[in-house]
Amino acid sequence: NPSDCGLDLAIPDNNCPLAVVFPIEVSVNGNQMGTNVYLKEVRLIIEHTWNEDLRFGLVSPSGDSVLLSEFNGSSGDNYGDPADTNCNSVTIFSESATTPISLGSSPFIGTYFPEDSLSVFNDGSDPNGLWLFYACDDVGSDVGYLQYLELLFDTIINCTDPTVVIGNSGSNSFCVGNSVTLSTTGGTSYQ
To answer: What is the Cα Rg of the chain in Å?
Structure first.
């Protein structure tokens, strides 16, 4: 993880509701999703004419499933740019996106919020093991290929010992790495 660029893994034509499944072996630091690690992004390139035929998603080792995109993109082609041999022009699914994939347009280069939230995976399960990417094509005549796939995980740092406490209650505490702006009653701000 990430995969090689230019995988050319076929997404068979007219195969929904069955789906072709692509396994991804994951080994990350952290063993509890949502506690000390989370899935930050899914990056991919799918070469396909008439994107509206496609439905695809991801299943964790614990069996949790997230639909990434379902029948979006109208008659447009591709998720990401299959001609990019470095796999930099990708479609990114992220919780930090501001645009839902359903409001995007082909070839979806950029960052989008998936159909289902990636936070579904934050169930305390171990992320290490076999993840499954699935895809199906709902209509005949247009074929496709998975060209690139990357699951990007990040660690969660739990702050149990705040370095700054404001007020007597401790409810306004901040740890190293937090960004905070403090204002005095006189209007002066400190960062």
So the answer is: 20
8 Å CB contact between 68 and 101: yes
CB distance 75 to 139 below 8 Å: no
C-alpha angle with apex 90: 89 to 93, nearest 5 degrees? 150
Calpha distance 77→149 (Å, rounded)? 18
Say if residues 124 and 33 touch (Cβ distance below 8 Å): yes
Q: Which amino acid, 52?
A: E
List, for residues 120-172, the tens digit of each pLDDT value.
999 999 999 999 999 999 877 777 999 999 999 999 887 665 555 555 544 45
For residues 104 and 80, the answer to whether their CB atoms sit within 8 Å is: no
Distances (CA, A) of 11 to 66, 81, 145: 19, 17, 5
